[in-house]
Specification:
Elements lengths: L4 H58 L6 H11 L3 E5 L4 E4 L15 E4 L8 E5 L7 H51 L14 H49 L7 H28 L8 E3 L1 H18 L3 E6 L6 E3 L1 H17 L6 E9 L2 E8 L6 H4 L11 H7 L5 H11 L4 E6 L3 E9 L2 H11 L1
Parallel strand pairs: 6-8
Antiparallel strand pairs: 1-2, 1-4, 3-4, 5-7, 8-9, 9-11, 10-11
Helix pairs in contact: 1-3, 3-4, 4-5, 5-10, 6-7, 7-10
The structure holds adenosine-5'-diphosphate.
Length: 454
């Protein structure tokens, strides 16, 4: 109970109300008392003035204070206060209670020297201070305090209602989040929190949903990855096993051909393992790029030259068409070379004898666009969206023959995207394919290039 938001909110509200009501009561009481005291002092002053007038008139009539006692007694009775009159020497000549008559005045009351407006003084008038509060003031104070207490109780009740309403509002998404997180912890990755709340709690719920999406995706990828890898490994391993068993059973000879074939499968396995490791490092962001300002046309020229022999062996013409004055790009030359090699190798592999492969490069706005175009078999349009997916092959048997791991384009895409570029393909079956990728040109280099060209 004590740990519930509802309870804590209620306690916080009650505390605020109690503190506010008590503070208001203290300030109001203090202010009220001050006003009352000032009013009382003014009243006392008026009363003293009236008594002074009576006594001054008495003294002026007689020329002395003799027998003033009866007048003082009447005045005391009339005003309901003790009135004491001393002559100018300080001897009491009148006391409405009679106790101090003819004695010295020893009480610590504030006196009024009479007459106030004349230079010759005839005596001092004292009036007992009011004891405690005037009854009207006490009643008024009680009423004010009563209303404050009733107000505070009412406020607590209203706070209770507001708390129930508000806390439901606040705690609902939190409870939903807690439930979802609990289920998530148990491995149910489909849990999401529905909320339209725009507050921090709503944002937390939305962040949770995004995290859940990513985790579910990652989990999905992880499961697929394991299945895919197992599937990919199974092929070459079962081929090697089949060939070794055939040799063991005497069905095949361990000749050069058999060893060559096993070696080929092992090479495929080792390429697969290398590619997988490279891809997983890249996807985990742990792959180190050696980014430098460099000339991409040089990279293209090197790759094309290295693959000329392979193309020639298949009677494929491999040419380049590089726009002059391309600006330098911020690239890891080795990795961009790897992307290009992969695309050109694919193009050669999927282009028949007598075909052509052309690598072109041009400046397109703020990026250099490289295109590897072949006149080969092309890719069916239905397959185009999957071509960059891991282990995806249009023609599985054909790919096996070319020794492809099915990871080349996935790695190429990851590398290009790591450079801040894009990779895509356009293809038509029977006419050939065009693979494009871009690399951004640094703003300063781009300006230089435009001026140079202009
Ligand atoms: P692989 O190792 O199989 O070549 P990639 O990821 O490089 O793997 O390519 C994936 C698939 O895309 C290939 O198996 C092939 O079916 C298809 N492909 C790639 N490049 C071309 C191309 N230039 N022409 C036709 N098909 C291609």
């Amino acid at each position: 109970m004590i740990n519930k938001i509802q309870f804590r909110l209620l306690m916080a509200f009650i505390l605020i109300i109690v503190v506010a009501a008590s503070t208001a009561s203290i300030f109001m009481g203090y202010n009220f008392q001050k006003q009352v005291d000032e009013y009382q002092a003014q009243l006392d002053q008026n009363t003293m003035s009236r008594i002074e007038r009576v006594l001054v008139r008495y003294y002026t009539g007689l020329g002395s204070w003799s027998d003033v006692q009866s007048v003082v007694e009447q005045t005391g009775q009339f005003y309901g206060r003790r009135v004491i009159l001393t002559d100018i020497s300080g001897a009491v000549v009148g006391d409405s209670q009679g106790d101090l008559l003819n004695k010295a005045f020893t009480l610590k009351w504030k006196g009024m020297t009479m007459p106030r407006n004349a230079p010759i003084k005839i005596g001092v008038l004292y009036m007992s201070p009011l004891e405690g509060q005037a009854p009207e003031v006490v009643i008024l104070m009680r009423q004010v305090n009563f209303f404050l207490v009733v107000g505070a109780i009412l406020a607590v009740c209203v706070a209770g209602f507001i708390t129930v309403f508000l806390s439901g509002f606040i705690s609902k998404p939190i409870q939903a989040l807690t439930r979802a997180a609990g289920q998530f912890g148990k491995g149910d990755f489909s849990q999401r929190v529905k909320t339209r709340d725009k507050s921090e709690v709503g944002q937390l719920a939305r962040s949770f949903n995004i995290m859940a999406d990513n985790l579910e995706n990652a989990e999905h990828l992880r499961r697929n990855m394991v299945t895919d890898v197992a599937h990919e490994l199974r092929g070459p391993v079962s081929n090697i096993r089949g060939q070794l068993e055939a040799i063991e059973d005497g069905l095949a000879k361990p000749d050069e051909k058999a060893i060559g074939s096993i070696h080929e499968e092992i090479m495929l396995l080792s390429r697969l393992i290398d590619d997988l490791q490279e891809l997983s490092l890249m996807e985990a962001g742990r792959f180190k790029f050696d980014m430098q300002i460099g000339d991409i046309s040089q990279v293209i020229a090197q790759v094309v030259e290295a693959l000329q022999g392979k193309a020639a062996a298949q009677k494929i013409s491999l040419t380049t068409d590089i726009e002059k004055g391309l600006p330098p790009c911020n690239i890891d030359q080795l990795r961009i070379g790897q992307v290009l090699r992969n695309l050109v190798n694919n193009a050669i592999a999927h282009t028949g004898e007598g075909g052509s492969v052309k690598v072109s490069a041009k400046l397109s706005f703020d990026r250099v666009e490289v295109c590897v175009a072949d006149s080969g078999e092309g890719i069916p349009s239905a397959e185009l969206s999957n071509i960059f997916e891991r282990f995806y092959r249009v023609d599985k048997s054909r790919s096996r023959a070319t020794g492809g791991t099915g990871l080349g384009l996935t790695i190429a895409r990851t590398l290009v995207e790591a450079h801040g570029g894009k990779i895509w393909v356009e293809s038509e079956v029977g006419k050939g394919s065009r693979f494009f990728f871009t690399v951004p040109v640094p703003a300063a280099a781009n300006g230089t290039a435009r001026n140079h060209k202009g």
